[in-house]
Design a protein that fits this description.
48% of the residues lie in helices and 11% in strands. The protein is α/β, with parallel strands linked by helices and 440 residues long. Among the domains are: 147 residues, 3-Layer(aba) Sandwich (Rossmann fold), CATH 3.40.50; 141 residues, Rossmann fold. The strands form three sheets. It has a four-stranded parallel beta sheet. The protein has a four-stranded parallel beta sheet with strand order 8-7-9-10, sandwiched between helices. It has a two-stranded antiparallel ribbon with strand order 1-2. A hairpin with a 5-residue loop joins strand 1 and strand 2. The chain is globular and about 65 Å long. It starts with a strand and ends in a 6-residue tail after the last helix. 42% of the residues are buried. Bound molecules: iron/sulfur cluster (SF4). The site of iron/sulfur cluster has 11 residues, from helix 15.
Length: 440
């Protein structure tokens, strides 16, 4: 009799080697384990560590991705898997192999979106990779966007204080990203934006975790005021370039070959949408799904509650930004869904789905006609809602300048750079034609 992966016994001998079940991480193990978290967005994720520590978890956010991570990923994940999967698995295995962590006292955190595309399989990719690499006692913790990470006492237990801290982290991470991306291309004193960004990140690291009554409006107002005081030269004179696409590639500077820096070097201003939009897109999905399928009432209720809660808090920051003479606030998720609906069905919920289209429409509507769409090579969902709608957008709007850029382990950076340079040349030319005096 042999035991299969589901735990059932069978008299049939397996013909192929089935990966062994990795051990389970229970919340009670938190004292003994270090949890490795793959990097996704340096601003947001650097705020995470302290908040988890407050709850007794030793979370270690891995640093930037380099070429070795990708090579490591390719060693354990089939190269027909998505590029983000290769990057994430590679990062975690590289850390385990580095010798910095005891594999029996280290757990691996991986996000799980439970959608219709391959992101649902990231956990399985990682399970196989961990076994192949010989780390049989390393547990894997799946983390779901609906703030659950396992059943009963498995995984990370989301307490109310922790949820509150997570919301603050993403709200303020988005705010800092928005403010710094706007200021950096025009800074009078080179490096002043980065200095200000680091100052506020340090401030938030302790503020978010230690302040019992963390006043979002008050803190947001302080930060916005500080960034408004940064001396800038030629503000708003450069072409704005929106960045849309697959979530990891959009925010992870290591994975997207430092796209924001390239845009800035080429004379543009990068505009990157909020990470919270992605969480809200996943949560609102339950509402739109009911058109074709049945979604349990409790699931819909929970998602609707979380959307309201997130938008309620984001509304406070939006209010502060509306009063700013320098910065533009983000849009409500319902508004984005409405924008997407004018082009395609909001039932496109695989990958970045309708959010990708919504971001592009929103950019066109707000005077950002230049867009770079980053997508993993062979990512079918994002090719449909990204590349697939360009023709329609060109029909609707003037001067549309959208460049899709594919990423995979074999893509040459030179090729990507040439495409960005070409797009920037068109962006600069269009801007000069529209605003000959250089301001708009
Ligand atoms: S969205 Fe694309 S890249 Fe991401 S998991 Fe799905 S298929 Fe892969």
């Amino acid at each position: 009799m042999t035991e299969n992966i589901t735990g059932r016994t069978s008299s049939i001998k397996p013909v192929c080697k089935i990966p062994q079940r990795p051990p389970v991480f229970y919340a009670t193990d938190k004292e003994r384990f270090t949890i490795l978290c793959p990097q996704m967005s340096p601003i947001h994720f650097s705020l995470l560590q302290n908040s988890f520590a407050e709850e007794g978890y030793h979370l270690d956010v891995l640093p930037e991705v380099d070429r070795d991570c990708v090579e490591e990923g390719l060693r354990y994940v089939n190269n027909d898997a998505c590029y983000p999967a290769i990057v994430v698995v590679g990062q975690l295995i590289q850390a385990l192999k580095s010798g910095r962590y005891h594999p029996d006292r280290t757990a691996l955190l991986i996000s799980q979106t439970c959608g219709g595309c391959r992101s649902t399989n990231y956990q399985a990719f990682l399970k196989i990779a961990v076994q192949k690499a010989g780390f049989l006692n390393t547990p894997i913790i799946p983390f779901n966007i609906n703030l659950s990470s396992g059943r009963n006492s498995e995984g990370i237990q989301m307490t109310l204080p922790m949820i509150k801290k997570l919301i603050r982290i993403f709200l303020f991470g988005d705010l800092l990203m928005r403010l710094s991306n706007h200021c950096r291309p025009y800074e009078t004193l080179p490096g002043s934006t980065e200095t200000m960004l680091n100052t506020w990140m340090d401030y938030l690291k302790t503020g978010i975790t230690q302040e019992k009554r963390f006043d979002i409006t008050q803190h947001a107002a302080k930060i916005v005021k500080a960034f408004e005081s940064l001396p800038l030269t030629g503000e708003n004179s450069k072409p704005k370039v929106g960045v849309v696409g697959e979530v990891l590639l959009k925010y992870h500077q290591g994975a997207n070959n430092h796209l924001v820096s390239i845009i800035e070097q080429e004379g543009g201003e990068a505009v990157v949408p909020d990470i919270l939009d992605f969480a809200l897109y996943c949560l609102t999905g339950d509402r739109f799904k009911t058109v074709f399928t049945r979604v349990p009432f409790f699931t819909r209720l929970r998602s609707a509650f979380l959307v309201r809660l997130l938008e309620y808090y984001r509304g406070k920051i939006r209010k502060v930004l509306k009063n700013s003479h320098r910065f533009v606030p983000s849009e409500h998720i319902n508004h984005l869904a409405k924008q997407a609906k004018s082009v395609l069905s909001t039932c496109n919920q695989t990958g970045e789905g309708w959010l990708l289209t919504a971001d592009m429409v929103e950019f066109m509507e707000t005077g950002v006609p230049n867009v770079i769409c980053v997508q993993p090579f062979g990512c079918l969902p994002n090719h449909i809602t990204g590349k697939g709608v360009i023709k329609e957008l060109k029909r609707r709007y003037r001067n549309v300048n959208i460049t899709p850029i594919d990423f995979d382990p074999g893509t040459t950076e030179v090729n990507q750079l040439n495409r960005i340079k070409l797009m920037m040349a068109v962006a600069n030319k269009n801007r000069l034609t529209a605003f000959p005096d250089g301001h708009g």
